[in-house]
Design brief:
Blueprint: E1 2-8, E2 12-18, E3 26-28, E4 35-38, H1 51-64
Antiparallel strand pairs: 1-2, 1-4, 3-4
The structure holds zinc ion.
Zinc ion (ZN) is lined by residues 8, 10-11, 29, 31-32, 34.
Protein name: Putative regulatory protein, FmdB family
Region (Disordered): 61-94
Domain Putative regulatory protein FmdB zinc ribbon: 1-41
Length: 94
């Protein structure tokens, strides 16, 4: 799903989710029910890959596809660090 921007005379800018390439030129405004026209806006590529984008994407995804939880989160064993450097064998063990 991709966000497309539409312009409503009463609500100003409205963003609606559609499948890429299937966004109609006009749609119904979710706020007032009027017909809104699609406007072209620059893609938000500047924030792609950032933690803010991942947070926004994860939040939007969880609204439509919540993760299924099958139980309580368990305690995980601390990760053991392994090294293959032979010099590290001489170091004292914890
Ligand atoms: Zn509206």
């Amino acid at each position: 799903m991709t966000l497309y921007e539409y312009r409503c005379a009463a609500c100003d800018a409205v963003e609606l989710n559609f499948v890429i390439g299937q966004a109609p030129q006009s749609a119904e405004c979710p706020g007032c029910g009027r017909q809104v026209r699609r406007v072209f806006s620059p893609p938000r590529l500047s924030i792609a890959g950032t933690s803010a984008y991942k947070l926004l994407d994860g939040t939007a995804k969880s609204a439509h596809e919540p993760e299924v939880v099958s139980g309580l989160p368990g305690r995980t064993a601390p990760k053991q660090r392994y090294t293959h450097n032979p010099l590290h064998r001489k170091l004292p063990r914890p």
